[in-house]
C-alpha cells in the first residue's frame, strides 16, 4: 500500500518503523543539545580559570540555565585536563622483546649469516685499502729493479679489492633486503590473521577502522624492517 494507508495501521511493521525513526531523530537532537551545553560550560570554566588563577568562587550569569555560582578549585589545571581528555582513549603500546623478532626471522638465519659476512668484508675493505695505498707509496722509494715488481703487485691488489667491493656491497644489501622482505611478509600475515579472527564488536571501535588497520599493516611492518636493515 501507499504511505498514507500503511501509517494508519499503528500495529503494522511499517508504522512501527516510522515511529522508531522519529524517536531516534529526537534522541540525536537531545544528545547534540546536551553536548553543546556541556562543551559551553567546560570552555567557560576554563576561561574563568585562566583569568582568575586560584580564586575559588565566581558569581555571574551564565547561558543555558547553568548555576550562577561556579566552584573553581585552586589546583584546577586546564592543560592537564586537556591532556587527559586527549589521552583518555589512547593506550600505551605494548613492548615486545627483541627475542620474539629474532624468532620471527629465524627461517632466514642462513641469509642473515651470509649478509653479515658480506658486511664484514665490506667493513674490512677500507682499512686494507689504506694499508695497500701506504705500501704502494713506500714502494716508490725502492731501487729500480724492485720498483716495477712491487708497484705491479700493489696495483693488482687495488684491482682485486675493487672486484671484491663490487661483489660484496650489492650482496650485503641484497641478502639483508631478502631477509627483511621475508620478515615483513611474515609479520603482515600474522597481523592479518589476528585481525580476521577478532570478534565483530572489535571492529566497531573507531581505532579499529579499515583505514587504521590498513595503515598498521603497511607502516608498522616497514618500521620493523628498519631494524633488520
From TrEMBL:
<dbReference type="Pfam" id="PF00664">
    <property type="entry name" value="ABC_membrane"/>
</dbReference>
<dbReference type="InterPro" id="IPR039421">
    <property type="entry name" value="Type_1_exporter"/>
</dbReference>
<dbReference type="InterPro" id="IPR011527">
    <property type="entry name" value="ABC1_TM_dom"/>
</dbReference>
<protein>
    <recommendedName>
        <fullName>ABC transmembrane type-1 domain-containing protein</fullName>
    </recommendedName>
</protein>
<keyword id="KW-1133">Transmembrane helix</keyword>
<feature type="domain" description="ABC transmembrane type-1">
    <location>
        <begin position="113"/>
        <end position="229"/>
    </location>
</feature>
<dbReference type="GO" id="GO:0015421">
    <property type="term" value="F:ABC-type oligopeptide transporter activity"/>
</dbReference>
<keyword id="KW-0812">Transmembrane</keyword>
<dbReference type="GO" id="GO:0090374">
    <property type="term" value="P:oligopeptide export from mitochondrion"/>
</dbReference>
<feature type="transmembrane region" description="Helical">
    <location>
        <begin position="153"/>
        <end position="178"/>
    </location>
</feature>
<feature type="compositionally biased region" description="Basic and acidic residues">
    <location>
        <begin position="76"/>
        <end position="93"/>
    </location>
</feature>
<dbReference type="GO" id="GO:0005743">
    <property type="term" value="C:mitochondrial inner membrane"/>
</dbReference>
<dbReference type="GO" id="GO:0005524">
    <property type="term" value="F:ATP binding"/>
</dbReference>
<dbReference type="InterPro" id="IPR036640">
    <property type="entry name" value="ABC1_TM_sf"/>
</dbReference>
<feature type="region of interest" description="Disordered">
    <location>
        <begin position="73"/>
        <end position="93"/>
    </location>
</feature>
<feature type="transmembrane region" description="Helical">
    <location>
        <begin position="109"/>
        <end position="133"/>
    </location>
</feature>
<keyword id="KW-0472">Membrane</keyword>
Amino acid at each position: 500500500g501507499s504511505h498514507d494507508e500503511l501509517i494508519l495501521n499503528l500495529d503494522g511493521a511499517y508504522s512501527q518503523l516510522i515511529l522508531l525513526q522519529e524517536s531516534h531523530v529526537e534522541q540525536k537532537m537531545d544528545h547534540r543539545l546536551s553536548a553543546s551545553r556541556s562543551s559551553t560550560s567546560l570552555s567557560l570554566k576554563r576561561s574563568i580559570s585562566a583569568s582568575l588563577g586560584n580564586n575559588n568562587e565566581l558569581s555571574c550569569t551564565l547561558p543555558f540555565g547553568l548555576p550562577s555560582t561556579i566552584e573553581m578549585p585552586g589546583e584546577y589545571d586546564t592543560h592537564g585536563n586537556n591532556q587527559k581528555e586527549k589521552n583518555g582513549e589512547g593506550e600505551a603500546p605494548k613492548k615486545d622483546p627483541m627475542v620474539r623478532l629474532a624468532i620471527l626471522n629465524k627461517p632466514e638465519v642462513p641469509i642473515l649469516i651470509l649478509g653479515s659476512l658480506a658486511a664484514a668484508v665490506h667493513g674490512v675493505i677500507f682499512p686494507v685499502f689504506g694499508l695497500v695505498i701506504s705500501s704502494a707509496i713506500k714502494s716508490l722509494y725502492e731501487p729500480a729493479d724492485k720498483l716495477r715488481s712491487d708497484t705491479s703487485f700493489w696495483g693488482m691488489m687495488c684491482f682485486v679489492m675493487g672486484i671484491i667491493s663490487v661483489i660484496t656491497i650489492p650482496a650485503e644489501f641484497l641478502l639483508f633486503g631478502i631477509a627483511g622482505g621475508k620478515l615483513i611478509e611474515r609479520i603482515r600475515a600474522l597481523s592479518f590473521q589476528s585481525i580476521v579472527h577478532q570478534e565483530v564488536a572489535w571492529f566497531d571501535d573507531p581505532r579499529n577502522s579499515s583505514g587504521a588497520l590498513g595503515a598498521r599493516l603497511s607502516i608498522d611492518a616497514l618500521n620493523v624492517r628498519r631494524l633488520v636493515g
